[in-house]
Amino acid sequence: MDILAELNGNIATIGYGLATLGPGIGLGILIGKALEGMARQPEVANTLRTNMFIGVAFVEVLALLGLIAGFLFI
Amino acid sequence: MDILAELNGNIATIGYGLATLGPGIGLGILIGKALEGMARQPEVANTLRTNMFIGVAFVEVLALLGLIAGFLFI
Amino acid sequence: MDILAELNGNIATIGYGLATLGPGIGLGILIGKALEGMARQPEVANTLRTNMFIGVAFVEVLALLGLIAGFLFI
To answer: Which residues of chain C from 18 to 37 reach within 8 Å of chain A, CB to CB?
Structure first.
């Protein structure tokens, strides 16, 4: 019998793909709201940008941990 | 018969990927609303940031437990 | 016959990942609305925070039960 299917690869790539799904949408909402606030009140743009970076750090780390998870769980 | 599929990796990476999906979107909404409030009333930015951190802690722990779950359930 | 697939890990990690999906989004909406209310009327911030914690407890327990479920269903 011949080969029916030849699938190669590591399942960790799917894991990372899933790990970017939520943070990707979340970062879009987060930074979008910051830009909306800057457009509404340009005089607080600096405060908004500072707090935006704090928030981005919390969300971005979730997606990057998805890449590290591939090394952790062998 | 030859090898049908050569998939490697740990299913825990998919588990972590799924665990970031909800918190990733949730953190985006949460921090986005905080930034929206800061733009609307800059004088309560400190109160909003404090409460934002409390909320972030509750949501972030759900995603990080997804990484710990990979070590718990071997 | 050769090795078909070399996948490791416990399916309970996927179960926990799915269990955080709803609560993660839900907590984001819940706390985000509380922050929105605090920005709108800063004088009721304490009342909002107290009620926010009551709501957070109800939603958070759903996600944490997802972790306990991995130990219950062996």
So the answer is: 24, 28
CB-CB neighbours of C50 under 10 Å: 9
> What ipTM goes with this model?
0.88
Locate the domains of chain A by residue range: 19-73
pTM surpassing 0.95? no
Kindly report, residue by residue over B33-53, the tens digit of the pLDDT: 999 999 999 999 999 999 999
Identify which of A60, A28, C48 has the alpha carbon closest to the alpha carbon of residue B44. Answer: C48
Task: Sort out which chain B residues have CB atoms less than 8 A from C16's CB and list them.
Answer: 15, 19, 65-66, 69, 73
C19-73 maps to CATH 3.30.565.10: no
For the stretch A25-72, pLDDT in tens is 999 999 999 999 999 999 999 999 999 999 999 999 999 999 999 998
